[in-house]
Amino acid sequence: MTGRPPDVERAPFGRLATGELVEAFTLRNAGGMEVRVTGFGGAIVSVRVPDREGQPGDVVLGYDDLPGYVADEVYLGALVGRYANRIRRGRFSLDGTEYVLETNHGPNHLHGGRRGFHKVLWSAEPVEGPEGVGVALRYTSPDGEEGYPGTLRAGVRYLLTGDNALVVDYHATADRPTPVNLTQHTYFNLTGDPGRDILGHKLQLHAEGFTPVDETLIPTGEIAPVAGTSFDFRRPTPIGAHLDADDVQLARAGGYDHNFVLLGRGTDGSPAPAARVFEPGTGRVLEVLTTEPGLQFYSGNFLDGSIRGKGGRRYGPRCGFCLEPQHFPDSPNHPEFPPTILRPGERYASRTVYRFGVA
Fold it and tell me: Which residue numbers are catalytic?
């Protein structure tokens, strides 16, 4: 594949029960990287990158076909919104009015509800520019969808660059005030083999603090220092190094499922380093840069072997991890957190970069 000019391949991926055609878009660059995206849920279906020997491998979890994504309940590869992460009791007040959302994860609202952005068909078109090739997705969320106020017009662009980076740009406008928090929920396994766990991946997070959670995984409002805790990834540390520690936060989540408070972004608003992951066996490296203030690190706690993914493989415990740049969970109920309310006349804009390499 090396030396092939950048391109986008467009092909049918299946039809929904409504008869709507769903397409998949395969992005390729000259460096041997390939990304496949589908319009259903804006899901990243596969990411193929070389290891230190130059051998390509698929480093994300997913399904072989459309029915897998339609039935999916763990957000494999999906875009999530209108509000990523959790909102306590599915309720928030905005300008004196209380809004009630669906509670789809215990007592709380998670990732936009049962029919969040991960369960809708986005319009999709290939794009090409000086930075690389990609696909532009658009979706209009009507007023009242899943309980959210206002019509939200959302757009996401995936762009594959020549230096093996996947750039994800998010934007949105609304005709009424509404909370917005969009992110990407891809599960990574840099070994390229989902039969192997991710516990030996060495993770570094550019965060001095995190937001502890209560028994239902809602932030308490505290920003706690990571120093001296199981949440200290300021230096490269195997993901599994502290998973068995006697830590109430790990016990509540069944592992890591927490928001880390990032150190900041470029003074010009450009993406700043958020995370770096190194897989020793293959030498693959994933770096994440973002304009977002938080990063949800999830260690695949709810993968239990019941999900059959690509090639019929069962996805067992800790076979994938997520790094989800976003605003903090439950921010509409925490005025002390960075705000997430989008108002008419404003434009929501966010950028995250997933850069792949070897070491």
Answer: 185, 324
